[in-house]
Specification:
GO biological process, one term: rhamnose catabolic process
EC number: 5.3.1.14
Number of strands: 10
GO molecular function: L-rhamnose isomerase activity; metal ion binding
CATH topology: TIM Barrel
Bound molecules: 6-deoxy-beta-L-fructofuranose, manganese (II) ion
InterPro entries: L-rhamnose_isomerase (IPR050337), Rhamnose_iso-rel (IPR013457), Xyl_isomerase-like_sf (IPR036237), Xyl_isomerase-like_TIM-brl (IPR013022)
Structural class: alpha/beta
Protein name: L-rhamnose isomerase
Strand order of the largest sheet: 1-2-3-4-6-8-9-10
Radius of gyration: 21 Å
Distance between the termini: 49 Å
């Protein structure tokens, strides 16, 4: 059986990064429901993130999205985060909201538009220098809607050239993380649709370029844990954007639709050294809380990742190897299922109490008075939103 002290130690090493945009209002293309107390500034988003960290103990990092989190002084924002026990995490670029990007950004046929997109990415690296962020996370909405609209390979060439310019600008301890997504907003071809395309581009760039797996960005039925295992084997897994989906890019709370899939993914992370801080896998959330309260939803999401992690760490690797070597299919499967079916909530409550945390973070947050305070104090001004 796995040693419980070692499991607890691994849980203590885990860090989950929360997205600034998860604290703001979001919705669908049909309606954005505003919620009382939602942050109006990047600083207020950090104040909320600090509460998530206070009650979970493992969420000190906050990812920013530029220009959604534009401020005058990024070093000051980094200092603001630090005063609250936080760090600024990945800088997410945004080359999808301007009219200029109708036909794409870094893959656009017009070099002037490509230049504009690359300039934005270089600005994001400047921001990283100011905040101390180590990861530039790139997702491109680029693609085409109709057969013949543009040349598939020419677009890959433009992508490679644009990425190379950005890669050159990175500092020694900074990474370029390239996220893929099957479709949307492009509906015929997408320029980075899958892990293979991201991997090929990253390999050409070099060691500081790695792939991001957003769990909502695959075709239904895709075996995501297989992708994770392969990328770890190649040392090309830069991180995750965790969320849950029933249909497409739903961005629901991670682990809600299919907690078993989350466990299977995290087992491959465990099996392939991905929980070792030296492997440097970024465990990020990328979610939008459209109808639920935001801070408790982020807390619940962090807990869902932590529960699945605990189960993954509980897999009896020795017994599994023995069953695999003996070709005992049922015994091997039983070892994995035993871990998955373990109720880890008492273990995690104990782990929290050992750190002076509330055993139930959701209840702890509900009782702390923060929600009432922000509802009373955050009046006037414009609420932050997904895309604002
Ligand atoms: C694209 C995506 C990407 C963006 C985020 C807001 O669907 O997953 O990570 O930066 O959503
Ligand atoms: Mn994402
Ligand atoms: Mn997405």
């Amino acid at each position: 059986m796995p040693d419980i002290a070692a499991v607890k130690a691994a849980l203590s090493d885990q860090r989950i990064e929360t997205p600034s945009w998860g604290y703001g209002n979001s919705g669908t293309r049909f309606k954005v429901f505003a919620r009382a107390g939602v942050p109006r500034t990047a600083q207020e988003k950090l104040d909320d993130a600090a509460k998530v960290h206070e009650f979970t103990g493992i969420a000190p990092k906050v990812a920013l999205h530029i220009p959604w989190d534009t401020v005058d002084d990024y070093a000051a924002l980094g200092a603001y985060a630090k005063e609250r026990g936080l760090e600024l995490g990945a800088i997410n670029s945004n080359t999808f909201q301007d009219d200029d990007y109708r036909l794409g950004s870094v893959c656009h046929p017009d070099p002037k538009v490509r230049r504009k997109a690359v300039e934005h990415l270089l600005t994001c690296v400047d921001i990283m220098d100011a905040t101390g962020s180590k990861d530039l996370k790139l997702w491109f909405a680029d693609g085409t809607n109709y057969p013949g609209q543009d040349d598939i390979v020419a677009r890959q060439d433009r992508l490679a050239e644009s990425l190379a310019t950005v890669y050159e600008r990175l500092g020694d301890d900074q990474r370029l993380l390239l996220e893929y997504k099957l479709f949307e907003p492009a509906f015929y071809t997408t320029d980075v649709p899958d892990w293979g395309t991201s991997y090929l581009q990253c390999v050409k760039l070099g060691d500081k370029a790695q792939v991001v797996v957003d769990t909502g960005h695959h075709a239904p039925g895709t075996n995501i844990e297989f992708i994770v295992a392969l990328l770890l084997r190649e040392r090309k897994l830069g991180g995750f954007d965790f969320n849950s989906r029933f249909y497409a890019d739903d961005d629901l709370m991670v682990g809600s639709a299919d907690p078993f899939q989350l466990f299977r993914i995290l087992y491959e992370v465990s099996r392939n050294g991905g929980f070792d801080p030296a492997t440097n896998v970024a465990f990020m959330l990328d979610q939008c809380h459209n109808i639920e309260a935001k801070i408790p939803a982020v807390i619940r999401s962090v807990m869902n990742v932590q529960e699945a992690t605990a189960k993954a760490l509980l897999v009896d690797r020795e017994a599994l190897s023995a069953a695999q070597a003996a070709g005992d299919v049922l015994a091997a499967n039983a070892v994995v299922m035993d871990a998955y079916n373990t109720d880890v909530r008492p273990l995690l409550a104990e782990w929290r109490e050992e750190r002076g945390l509330a055993p139930d973070p959701v209840a702890g947050y509900a009782a702390c008075g923060w929600q009432e305070r922000i509802v009373a104090e955050r009046v006037g001004g414009e609420q932050a939103g997904w895309g604002a």
